[in-house]
Amino acid sequence: MKKFFKSNQKKLKIPVTEGIKIIFFIIVMGAILGSVAPFIHIFYPKTAHEVLVLNTKYEEGKITKAKYLEDKKILKKKYETFGFSTKRRFLFAIGLPLALFCCSIILLYISQFITNSSVKRGSIFAGLSFQFTAIYFIVWTLWAYTYEEKDFGKSAYYSIIVLSSILITFTIYQFQKSILHNNSKIRELIGFIVGTRKSLFKTIEKHETETAAITQKEEFDQKMYETFEKVVD
User: Is 100 exposed, middle or buried (0-12, 13-18, 19+ CB in 10 A)?
Assistant: First the structure.
């Protein structure tokens, strides 16, 4: 029976370990993507080399204005990315939303390990708020900018503002609730310690000499203050 249990335990550990490795890999890749995304655009030129060559030819009078405008229109379509004139502009627009989205995923993942229920809920609300905002601007970059309006309607902006405001309000409420709860627990603990201290000092005074009682009181107070300092830090 023991051999059977040990063999099954070993088998059960494999998927758990692999699952942890996969989750860790995803989190690390998300962190790397979130850190790099806002800066990827710097690896692409502000103006394509072909466009620079075309501009130079026109400035030097090697081609006519009609030829210049025709070729420029062709190059514009060639280098256009999701409605943006260049890939650099596209990556610049989507970089920060991607970083915010990755941060929200990491925050939501970390919130699963928080034991304080109020802080956990606050972290989830904050993560969702960041995530909705990030998704909004990612969609805006990939979809809305391909249309002539180059933007969503005002109602879409108002909706995301209201949603984010509600989630952030819940976030602040949960964190404030946690702070008030912790302060209440600290006050109760200090009250208990003070009451215990008084009872202890009375017992010491009854059973010890005056000099020994003073020494023990000072030692107790010193240890108590050192403990308070550790807790405060």
Answer: buried
